[in-house]
Amino acid sequence: MSRDSLERGPTIVDVARAAGVSVSTVSRVMRDHADVKAATRTRVRESIDLLGYRPSPIARALVSGRSRLVTLLVSDITNPFYPQLAKSVEQEAKQKGYAVVICNTEDRTTETRRYVERLLSQGLEGVIHASVARDEQVLLSLMADERRIVFTNRRPAHSETSYVVSDNEGGAFELTRHLLTLEHRRIGFITGPKYARNVAERMKGIRQAMKDVTDAELLVSEGDFSVDSGRRAVLTWMRSENAPTAVIAVSDSVALGALGALADCRLRVPEDVALAGFDGTQLSASPLLSLTTVDQHIETLGRRSAQILLEQLATGGRFEPVHEVLPTQLLLRGSTLGAAADRRAFDLKAVPV
Amino acid sequence: MSRDSLERGPTIVDVARAAGVSVSTVSRVMRDHADVKAATRTRVRESIDLLGYRPSPIARALVSGRSRLVTLLVSDITNPFYPQLAKSVEQEAKQKGYAVVICNTEDRTTETRRYVERLLSQGLEGVIHASVARDEQVLLSLMADERRIVFTNRRPAHSETSYVVSDNEGGAFELTRHLLTLEHRRIGFITGPKYARNVAERMKGIRQAMKDVTDAELLVSEGDFSVDSGRRAVLTWMRSENAPTAVIAVSDSVALGALGALADCRLRVPEDVALAGFDGTQLSASPLLSLTTVDQHIETLGRRSAQILLEQLATGGRFEPVHEVLPTQLLLRGSTLGAAADRRAFDLKAVPV
DNA sequence: GTGAAAGCGCTAACAT
DNA sequence: ATGTTAGCGCTTTCAC
Would you write out chain A's pLDDT as a tens digit for each of its 353 residues? Predict the structure, then answer.
């Protein structure tokens, strides 16, 4: 290694010498700690500025066990939902002096274990898990302390750990009501795998809405959150005898696959089949999709989970897990309302030339 | 902080004691260093396994200046190109024991500076910059050593630093030839900002292809890589007198915006206007877009840049920057070829039910 | 071939 | 209010 090129700047000792005080005094000033005479403080501050001293987080980490490193666990960063989430998590963390390492778990417990173990030995302080699956226990035991974990997007199944999630059930309920209002009676739901609790919650909301309508029928196709699972579900349904007239995809990303398949089948949306997604990603807003969806306020989800984690990390004393369920918002667009809605959206967003 | 819960495992001292040797010997064994008698080595190894000893990267970092941390700088993680890139970078790095911190620069030099400074004080070893803009010099001087940097996607303008990029010019040339072959004579190009060198290269390829065709005309609309810039460009053109019959977007993401605007204008693609993107993202493959594009082999770009950086980090001695220009591949799809191509794509990908 | 000892840059008792 | 000192867990001369 080019050791030489690693710019080792001035150390705390240099500052102490320059200010004519001891290192502990400098250390105290650095952390706004205890009582330091105003005059001394000023003198130290001057030396710090003069030398351009910046404390070494590595040395700090060694002695304090703190690294200012947190990780964001997601099942698949190429699903548009996660980059949006990651961006807001990162913004919040950056502001508080933390760096965020993003990891793809692919919903595999071994990946979670491997990654967290490695980062832990690098001094990882906390984790935001946006895709908890069967790795919940592993993560809990690796991190040892509940306050070092926040779940988001998917609610944990077995612990009282903090979480910030959307009101999946309410959002799905509202969406389904919307479809029922439009006279749809055979509704298809393309789910994700069962270990994702948000899927179950959305399913519950859908059933809840449908149970009031006696002649309503629910078709379920189990997918895996992939774009292609949306595609496959639609193709299978459309070949069958009683295809649904409306389809709810478990995510916007899955809806994209479904929409593609409908296009391939030469079916018009929403005239032949209505379609709705879930998430409220930027993608769903494209006039090309004009996708009715349930907005999760992804940025809020990300920001809040980062805030909560960093607070928990900073706070000693009794620990009370935070459980937040944020309201969703139904976004009505052309994929269920048709051209009228499309036009409206277009007119409103009159283009600034 | 809950100091107690930080599982401080066995240290090198424990291992030394258990094996009845000194810490230096254990250290040597850990790094397969120098000469250690086979018997001793075995004994030490046994103690290591027995105690489940794992060296502390933090302590290592303190003494050696190494952190096993690299960063990937991107302009905007919500542009689908970057998550795909990030994923492959991360996979490669993970395998080699490195963690990747992803940062959004938003093409702002101040962001690059702030982030890299912070990470540097955390022991950052290297950076892959996928969106170099006006921050090239800043980055170079911050990192101090060229071997700690690899550029990808956009080629650096002022330095001999290593890079892995696509043959932007060749890809754009080939794409434009394709459009010319289809008898398009008025072609619009939605660019990105001028500081991105890949934009200039693509422009060059386009001009190169058009200069052989006397009656061909190029319209340029300067965008900013945002989806909305694609939208705005199309709307402006379509209101004008001589709208292009074919549009090339600087990225798939921009093409998405353009496609949306075309839909809003009730223009059929490709019958009224042909459209092509650049990147070869997963998005472009959706039957909904069926977007003709130039495949950059994003995964290769990511993997190679990680490989090169980690090699450079590991190698001492003379340093020879690596410059790789990877070939692109023209992906012909419905957005330029029409329904025929659509159908074909569909038939080929017969769905496994 | 192996060990002793001196740090890396900082924090946190414990003194004064 | 400030200084002294002992480490944090490891690497790395320099002896033996």
Answer: 333 334 567 899 999 999 999 899 999 998 887 678 888 989 999 999 988 888 887 888 778 767 788 999 999 999 999 999 999 999 999 888 888 989 999 999 999 998 888 788 777 889 999 999 999 999 998 888 899 999 999 999 988 999 999 999 999 999 999 999 999 999 999 999 999 999 999 999 999 999 989 999 999 999 999 999 999 999 999 999 989 999 999 999 999 999 999 999 999 999 999 999 999 999 999 998 999 999 999 999 999 999 999 999 888 777 899 999 999 999 999 999 976 554 444 333 333 33
The amino acid present at A319, given as its one-letter code, is F
Q: Do residues A149 and A175 make contact, with C-beta atoms less than 8 angstroms apart?
A: no
Length of chain A in terms of residues written: 353
Chain A nearest C-alpha distance from B311 (Å)? 11
- The nearest CA of chain A is from the CA of B85 a distance in Å of 9
CA A222 – CA B136 distance, rounded (Å): 48
| Contacting residues of A for B342, CB less than 8 Å apart | 264
Tell me the β-bridge partners of A166.
Answer: A326
- Cβ contact B147–A66 (<8 Å): no
Q: How far is the CA of A93 from the C1' of D13 (A)?
A: 41
Question: E-assigned strands of chain A?
Answer: 69-74, 99-104, 126-129, 149-152, 162-166, 186-191, 217-222, 246-249, 274-276, 293-295, 323-326, 329-331
CA distance A250 to B274: 33
Tell me the CA–C1' distance in angstroms for B225 and C15: 63
Query: Does A10 lie at the interface with B, CB-CB under 8 angstroms?
Result: no
Distances (CA, A) of A277 to A187, A248, A342, A351: 13, 6, 16, 26
Say how far B10 CA is from C14 C1', in Å. Answer: 27
- The protein side of the strand D contact, defined by CB less than 7 Å from any of its atoms, consists of A 20-25, 28, 34-37, 39-41, 59, 62-63; B 8, 11-13, 23-24, 27-28, 30-31, 53-56, 59-60, 62-64
* Exposure class string for B77-88: b at 16+ Cβ within 10 A, else e: bbbbbbbbbbbb
**A51 secondary structure, DSSP code:** H
